[in-house]
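Final paragraph of the annual report: two paired records, presented back to back.
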Amino acid sequence: MGAIEARGLSKRYGATLALDRLDLDLARGEVYGFLGPNGAGKTTTIRLLLGIHRPTAGHAMVAGFDAWAGAVAAHRHVAYVASEPTLWPGLTGAETHDYLANLRGGCDRAYREILMRRFDFDPVKKIRALSKGNRQKVQLVAAFATRAEILVLDEPTAGLDPLMEAAFRETVGEARERGQTIFLSSHVLSEVELLCDRIGILRAGRLIDEGTLAQLRHLSARTVEVSFSRTGVDLEPLRRLAGVEVAGAADHHVMLQVRGEMGPLLDTLAHLPVTTMDSREPSLEEIFLVHYRDQAPVPAS
C-alpha cells in the first residue's frame, strides 16, 4: 500500500463542489507536487487527508489508515506544515518546539538543532514577536525534526527569503534520501519543478493532469529562438510547417513555438541563413498556464 491513496475523494460545501472524485497514489519516499490556483481545491484536499473534514464521497488512506475513521492512528505517521502558522503567542520558539515534540512523543532533537542553525532561527523570542517567515520556520523545524514517514506541506515557504528557500530545498532532499513521503502544495512553481518526482494539477476541484515533468510537457510547445545573418528573411516556409508557430519576429531574430518532432524544422532552417539557434523545453510555469489559459475564476475552497 502507498503512503497516501485516494479513491473518488469528493467534498461538497452546500451547493459548492470543492473536490470532485480525486484519485491519488503516492508511493513511499515520493515527493509529490500539488498545484492549482486559489479555489482549486488544494486546501480542501489537505483537510480531507488530515481527517479534519469528512468526505462527501470516496475515501482516503494515509499510512494505511482511513484518513477520517482512523485519523488518530494516521496522525502518528504524519507531520503537517500549515500555510498560515497558528501558534501560541506567549510561548517562545523553543517552548513551542518542546511542546509539539511532547505532544507527539518525541522528535530527533539533534536534527532539530541542525535545522535551527540551517534556518537561522532564534528560539528565544516569543511567537508574538516573530514575522510570518520566522513563524513558518517554527513549523518547518518542528515538522522535519519529527522524521515522520509522511510530510504534508501547505505553502511551506510562504514568507521565507531566497536563502531560507534554499535551506528548505536542502531539507526536502534529506527527507527524500531517508525515504520520507512529501505531499507539497505550493504556488512556487520553480520550487515544485526542482523538488518533485511527480506533479498533479488541480482545476475547479478536479485533477486534470498528473505525471513527471517530462510527461506533463506533452501539452506544451518547445521554444526555439533563431537568429539570422541578415534581416528580411522570408519566414513563410516556417509558417507552413505543421506544429510550428511563429510567436514573434524582429530584425534578424525569430521566436518559434514547436509541437511535435523537430526534424522538419531543422531541415527548413538548413536552407536559411541561420547564425544561432537556441531550444528549450517548456517550464512548469508554461505547462501550468496551458491548463489555465482562458479559465474563469472559481469560488475559494
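The closing record of the year follows.
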Amino acid sequence: MPGVSDAGPQSDESATDRRIEELRAKGVEIVAGSITDPAGVTRAKYIPLRRLGDFQRSGMGVSPSWSVFCVDTGIAFTPTIGVSGDLRIRIDPNDAAVIDDGIAWAPGNLTDQAGDPAPLCLRSLLQAAENAAAARGLTVRVGAELECTMLAPDGSPASTEPWSPYGIRTSLDRSAFLVDLAATAERAGLRVEQIHTEYGHDQLEVSLAPTTPVAAADAVILTRIVLGRAAARHGLRISFAPVAFEGGAGNGAHLHLSLADEQGPLLSGGDGPYGIRPAGGAAIAGVIDTLPDLIGVYAGSALSALRLKPGNWAGAAACWGLENREAAVRFIAATAGSPHGANAELKLIDPSANPYLAAAAFLNSALRGIDRQLELPAEIPENPSQSAGTPPPLPTDQRAAIEATEKSAVAAELLTPEVVEALVAVRRYELNTFGDRSPAEITQALRLAWSC
C-alpha cells in the first residue's frame, strides 16, 4: 500500500522520541542494555539517552566471545568462537526501566549485524520455547523466587549477631533497605509479591508474580539489579552465589511453571493426583525425566554442588511431591492458599544458572513430556532420602554435571548444540580453574561473580 513503508519508520522514530522524553523527565541520562551469558553473568553496554533509537535499530557491538566469557576474567574459546566477528545487543526502548539515579536498563537480544537472533542469544531461545508452547495451544506462566546473601562492603558477612530465620528482628534491622528495595522495585515496574529474610544468616528472598516466560526471566535480571543498587545505598552488597560462605545456607533461584490449554489449567481440574490432568502429569514427568541431562544448566557451576545436597531443601532428588521441599519438583496444588493456581516449582536451580536458559530448559522439558505422553511417576510424599522408593542420585558433582549435559542428545535437542557447547566450555573452565580449591577458597573467589 502506498505510504505504508514511509509511515512505519517515521512512527517508530516518533515513538522513540516520546520514550526519550519520558525517560528524561525521570532524570535518566544513560541507558544500559544487557545480556546474560552462559556462565550466568550479566554484562552491559551504556549509551547516552539521546542514542536510545540507535540501541534498537543498529545495536551496540560486542564480540562473539561474550558468549564464552567466564565467571572471572577468563575466556573459554571454542572451535566455533574465536577472536573474529561481531554481534550486536539490541533493546526495545519500551522495556527501559529506571534502576538508579540517572540510569535506565533494558534487556537485550544478541543479534547478528542484520538483526537476526544470534545462535547464542539465550533470550531468543526462551522466546522460541514460548512460541513452541503457543503453537501447541498452551498458555505458559513462569514465576521466580530469588534468594541472595547480604554482605558487608568488603564481602564479609553483613552482620555478626545471632540470626533468627524469618525473624521480625532480623528483618526490621534492615527496614530502611527493605523499604528502599520495595519502592525502587515498584518504580522499575516489578511485580514483587513478597520480601523476607530467609533461613540462612543474612539471607534474603524476593518473590515475583508469574508472567510470560521471557518477561519472567527479564524480571529476574531486573530484580537482581534493583537489589544490588538498593543494597549499595545502605552500605551492603548482594551475593547471588549458590553458596556465599563455606558451610552456609545455599541460595536458590526457583522457577514456578503453570500451563493451560483451551480447557483450562493442566495442573488442576483433572482426575489425577491433586487434580493433575494427563497432559500436566506428562509435563512434570518430562521435567523429571530430563533432570540428569540438564543438571549442568540448572546447577552446573563450581559452587553448585555445595548447595545441591540432601537435607538442604535444594531439591537434590529427581522426584516430585506435594509441597515437598526436598524434591526437585515441588508441586503446589490449586487451593485458596495458592492465588495463582496450581504450579510446579523446580527447586534445584541456583543463581549461577542463566535464567533465560534455565527457563527454556524447564519449559522445553515439560513440552517434551507432553509430546511423548510420559506417565507421571509415583509421588514421593516424604523425604526422598528416607523413602522406600528413593530416586537415583543426580550427577551433582560439577565434573559429572558437565559431562552429563555435554553427552546428552536431549540437551542438544532442547537447547541446540551451539548453546550446549558454550555452556560446557565456560563450566569446564571453572572446573579447571577452581576444581582443586577448597570450598572456602571457591566461595571467596566467586562470592560476587553473579552479582548485578
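The chain has two domains: 15-118, 127-446. This concludes the annual technical report; the extension proposal builds directly on these records.
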